[in-house]
Specification:
Keywords: Membrane, Transmembrane, Transmembrane helix. The chain has helices at about 10-35, 40-65, 65-85, 95-130. With about 130 residues, the protein is mainly alpha-helical. It has one domain (about 10-130). Helix 1 (about 10-35) runs antiparallel to helix 2, helix 2 runs antiparallel to helix 3 (about 65-85) and helix 3 (about 65-85) packs antiparallel against helix 4. It is globular and about 60 Å long.
């Protein structure tokens, strides 16, 4: 994980901005291009708020030194996005968008929980070696 900045580095804030804008752009592409829904500013702003909250949470933990949380949360987020896009092309009698979004949420939360668990185990192992 050498590609990640060190804890408490200001580079994390640049990462946060890029991460958030990319995440928001992917959500907008999904809603307005893939699902072919008409553009709605309120929906776009809500996706922006979702992207902001998720991005700040994940990158703030990275800034605090939780590199495993960042990596596993990002892996869960990317997996969720890929599955959300793939569910769009399945014939689910009109439930594709809801099933895809719920899958995205499930994988994002699962990656976050797995990252927290991995960081906890790493902390306990490190503490046990020292004491």
């Amino acid at each position: 994980m050498r590609f990640l900045p060190t804890a408490k580095s200001n580079i994390w804030f640049r990462w946060m901005a890029v991460y958030g804008l990319l995440f928001w752009a992917v959500l907008l592409i999904y809603r307005f291009a893939v699902l072919a829904e008409p553009f709605d500013l309120m929906i776009a702003l809500r996706f922006g708020l979702l992207a902001l909250v998720v991005t700040v949470l994940i990158n703030l933990l990275g800034w605090l030194g939780g590199r495993l949380v960042w990596c596993l949360s990002t892996a869960g987020l990317i997996t969720g996005l890929v599955l959300m896009f793939s569910y769009t092309y399945r014939d689910m009698s009109g439930w594709e968008d809801l099933a895809g979004f719920l899958t995205f949420i499930m994988f994002t939360l699962g990656g976050f929980a797995l990252g927290l668990a991995a960081e906890g185990v790493y902390f306990l192992m490190k503490r046990r070696r020292q004491g």
